[in-house]
Here is the input.
Amino acid sequence: QKEVEQNSGPLSVPEGAIASLNCTYSDRGSQSFFWYRQYSGKSPELIMSIYSNGDKEDGRFTAQLNKASQYVSLLIRDSQPSDSATYLCAVNQISGGYNKLIFGAGTRLAVHP
Amino acid sequence: EPEVTQTPSHQVTQMGQEVILRCVPISNHLYFYWYRQILGQKVEFLVSFYNNEISEKSEIFDDQFSVERPDGSNFTLKIRSTKLEDSAMYFCASKGTGASSGNTIYFGEGSWLTVV
Here is the structure.
């Protein structure tokens, strides 16, 4: 069974700090990786996608990918209380030529004033 | 911005009843998905659909489940005889084709199904 693993948290950080969220995956063939944010009772909302090793920055968010270590992370700079949510790591799997996303269980982030 | 829309947002049904959840994927998207999330658990893949047929389904997607694209815009999930354990949020999602879309899958707001 191909898995995506995340620490469930909660990860508690003070406002203005950097939040670091981590994810590991088991399928070495995966090529596309995504971070979604999910507020309670809401649908997953795409934050970032990353396809190549290294860092990808978008505003306060930086995604990091290391395919050799099968590790992907998300850094949130200058964390705000509105960032408090569950962050879902998702890995694209290809089967028979078709894509699907496999999700981790999510890490709950709490940003306190 | 285009979005995936789902109806109903919440449905309560009695055990054993049939339920149909409806979705309108993003226009010009060709890949469609249903996921579900039981309260407090992870988002789980149910089924993918392309070119008017199922491309992949998970172990969860047993004979009680079916999907259909009855016209050019709607994509439905039917549960024939609901069980208590079918209570969950069901998310429809869609994906485009071509380099500009990448592999990004966009989710609808979800349909909360409560089986009593």
About this structure: The interface with chain A takes residues 31, 33, 35, 41-45, 48, 50, 55-56, 89, 91, 95, 102-110 of chain B (CB under 8 Å). The first strand of chain B starts at residue 5 and ends at 7. The two ends of chain B are 36 Å apart (CA to CA). Chain B is about 0% helix and 50% strand.
